[in-house]
Specification:
The complex is a heterodimer. By secondary structure, chain A is of the alpha/beta class. Chain A contains eleven helices and eight strands. Chain A is globular and about 50 Å long. The longest helix of chain B is centred in the first third of the chain and has 15 residues, at 11-25. The chains are: A alpha/beta, B alpha/beta. Chains A and B meet through helix 5 and helix 6 of A and helix 4, helix 6 and helix 7 of B. Bound molecules: thiamine diphosphate and magnesium ion (MG).
């Protein structure tokens, strides 16, 4: 195992690089047809996940969406079991029952991601209610996309969280799209997501989602407030996904989003933004980045070998786990 | 446990008693739903609980069925059991995503790492103009879904025993209470009384025909059996009590004995529990059947509101007895006693409006 940096800034950059490379490896391997499940990659959006992961305690519960690889990994989810899940193997984090859209690692508080838009929102609020009833000191993090806020259950859940003053932190990755549909056809012109959240009674803010340092700082402050009992909070982060909604490829040939937007957001690559900010930071250099790349590639290769070599679930067990 | 002292309780009081016992046993258990601490206390089923356990554990909620169901799932993941309640099953239809995609799936889709011990009480309305959207008996929907358990008790003792088992079951359980059974009184064991989920009960042994029933149709079947007994017909009535898992061995044993089957269903006919039981008996016990098995259910249309349009809508003692008589090639037909009260209430105790 490689020594991970102690310096929190270095760690943020390395963690982003790691998430990026883990997903790039998925994009690279996917066409081989071994990962036989839909995948929603977060390439371009890593700063939010990593900033949140850094601000939460390991024991703080988190739930997420169809696009949850980065959240799982940033929370500390196991890499081998993650890949094995995508390969549909018994050693997967959900024993191959869930695939990419149903990730779980209870050792690090990652309580589950699910594939129905908005589905984990009330589940997260319920986890927070559970911690409140049991007198536990935890902040439950609920990852959502901009599209999920259009589900009625978001309002219902947020409303209840406010009524009962639950320790919940909503993290909204606003990437401007729900599949191919831009937000302007889905929400009224002039609506600001964080104001909408605020009107329900959540402590809300909106920030750049591609600067990992500011994300980490903002989230840390919000987590502290929620932990201190100040009531549920909502952070909107503007970001952008690079690849197609679902799958390993670019799909900008379809012309559904302005080329200019894509170019601008790619120029604001969260990793390059961080690198630029780190130029004069002690312990950071392009050599260090190179070294990290090497270490991470080795880790990824080993995890892919693990996933490939892992055993399939026994076909006869397809009906297991229906009841506890 | 069999020797526990009993006391006569109405169904509603048995529910309240069961909740109270469970909340004493499990100090983290919560109980919520629209109206649990309002002046009417869910028809009296939650009376006194808010006072005894406080607002942290017994509380009213926003009119948000979908979220409140998902919230129960999340709380369960954190080790907090809940009993939630909806004053009509129809209201709970807003929560299908959380029921089917979360509660029923969580244990399966994460490979058995977490279970979802929740109970959702659903009250079935009928009559007094409850109409198309306050009277649906959609238990068959829920019975279709692996991962759920579905309980439909008929009397006060079963209600308490099955409620306590449901609460301490590690899986999501839908607990369907018929509004017309709420005042039914029976001897109820005191204390922590539990009845296994998934066991039917032979209400009355008989030799000529097996009648399977659930919920409010059990008392109707009993009425039918009484009418038929006067004509020398002996009915074996099976109170299913749980419809997922269905106690098919109990159906097998009875059908092999009687050679005839009438499956009652308080809901609609298509893809109903009655359909399932008839299919099962036809597949497994074709050789034992002396006549074609039948179903008796609501007609295949919604319940209208008008007094006139609900006449003969649901299977009744009379229609059950007439069907049995027909299956036995007997001439007897039974009509509602004109002196009996109005058809749209369970008895004089029910004055509406809900
Ligand atoms: C209830 C439901 N409706 C539709 C879908 C199909 N779907 C999958 S992902 C997605 C987009 C959601 O957008 P957003 O919440 O912004 O997340 P993003 O993909 O941008 O990360 C949709 C519509 C679904 N999975 N669930
Ligand atoms: Mg989006």
């Amino acid at each position: 195992m490689n020594a991970l940096p102690n310096d929190p800034s270095l760690k943020l950059v390395r963690d982003m690089l790691r998430v990026r490379m883990i997903e790039e490896a998925i994009a690279r391997e996917y066409p081989k047809g071994e990962m036989r499940c839909p995948v929603h990659l977060s390439i371009g959006q890593e700063a939010v996940a990593v900033g949140v992961g850094a601000a939460l305690e390991r024991t703080d519960p988190a739930v997420s969406t169809h696009r949850s690889h980065a959240h799982y990994l940033a929370k500390g989810g196991d890499l081998k079991r993650f890949y094995a899940e995508l390969f549909g193997k018994e050693a997967g984090c959900a024993k191959g029952r869930g695939g990419s859209m149903h990730l779980i690692d209870l050792d690090v508080g990652f309580e589950g991601s699910t594939a129905i838009v908005g589905n984990t929102i009330p589940v997260g609020v319920g986890l927070a209610l559970g911690t409140q009833v049991r007198g536990e000191n935890a902040v439950t993090c609920i990852f959502v996309g901009d599209g999920a806020l259009e589900e009625g259950v978001f309002f219902e859940s947020a409303n209840f969280a406010v009524v009962r003053k639950l320790p919940v932190l909503f993290i909204c990755e606003n990437n401007n799209y729900s599949v191919y549909s831009p937000i302007r056809v889905r929400q009224p012109t002039g609506r600001k997501i964080h104001e909408f959240a605020s009107s329900i009674g959540l402590h809300s803010q909106s920030h750049d989602g591609n600067d990992v340092f500011s994300v980490a700082e903002t989230v840390k402050a919000a987590v502290d407030d929620v932990r201190a009992g100040k009531g549920p909070a909502f952070l909107e982060f503007a970001t952008y996904r690079w690849l197609e909604h679902c799958g390993p490829y670019y799909d900008d040939n379809l012309g559904y989003r302005p080329e200019k937007d894509v170019a601008e957001w790619k120029a604001r690559d969260p990793i390059r933004v961080a690198e630029a900010k780190m130029q004069n930071h002690p312990g950071f250099s392009s050599d260090v980045m190179e070294r990290w790349r090497g270490e991470i590639a080795t880790e990824i290769d080993a995890a892919l070998v693990f996933a490939r070599d892992a055993a399939w679930p026994d076909t006869a067990t397809g009906g297991d786990y229906v009841y506890a | 446990m069999l020797d526990a002292p009993t006391s006569p309780l109405a169904f509603v009081d048995a529910i309240r008693d069961g909740l109270d016992v469970a909340m004493q046993i499990d100090p983290h258990m919560i109980c919520y739903g629209l109206g649990v601490d309002d002046p009417k206390r869910i028809f009296g089923t939650t009376t006194g609980l808010a006072e005894k356990y406080g607002n942290g554990r017994v509380f009213d909620v926003p009119t948000s069925e979908a979220a409140m169901t998902g919230i129960a799932v999340g709380a369960a993941l954190r080790g907090v059991r809940s009993v939630t309640v909806h004053q009509r099953l129809d209201f709970f239809l807003l929560a299908m995503d959380q029921l089917i995609n979360s509660a029923a799936k969580w244990h399966f889709m994460f490979g058995g790492q977490r279970s979802v011990p929740i109970v959702i009480r659903l009250i079935l309305g009928r009559g007094w103009g409850q109409g198309p959207t306050h009277s649906q008996s959609l238990h068959s929907w829920f019975a279709h879904v692996p991962g759920l358990k579905v309980v439909m008790p008929t009397n006060a003792a079963d209600a308490k025993g099955l409620l306590l088992s449901s609460i301490f079951d590690p899986n999501p359980v839908l607990f369907l209470e018929h509004r017309w059974l709420h005042q039914a009184v029976s001897e109820v064991p005191q204390g922590d009384y539990r009845l296994p989920i998934g066991q039917a009960r032979v209400v009355a042994p008989g030799t000529d025909i097996t009648i399977t029933a659930m919920s409010y149709l059990v008392p109707e079947a009993i009425r039918a059996a009484e009418m038929l007994a006067k004509h020398g017909v002996s009915c074996e009535i099976i109170d299913l009590r749980t419809i997922r898992p269905l106690d098919l061995p109990a159906v097998s044993a009875s059908v092999q004995k009687t050679g005839r089957l009438l499956a009652l269903d308080s809901g609609l006919p298509i893809c109903s529990v009655a359909s399932e039981i008839v299919a099962f008996a036809s597949e497994r016990h074709f050789q034992s059947l002396r006549t074609a098995p039948r179903r008796l259910t609501m007609p295949d249309h919604p319940e209208a509101t008008s007094f006139a349009l609900t006449r003969d809508l649901h299977p009744s003692g009379e229609s059950i007895a007439s069907t049995v008589s027909d299956m036995l090639a007997l001439p007897h037909r039974f009509a509602r006693d004109p002196k009996a009260g109005p058809h749209d209430v369970p008895g004089a105790w029910f004055k509406g409006p809900f």
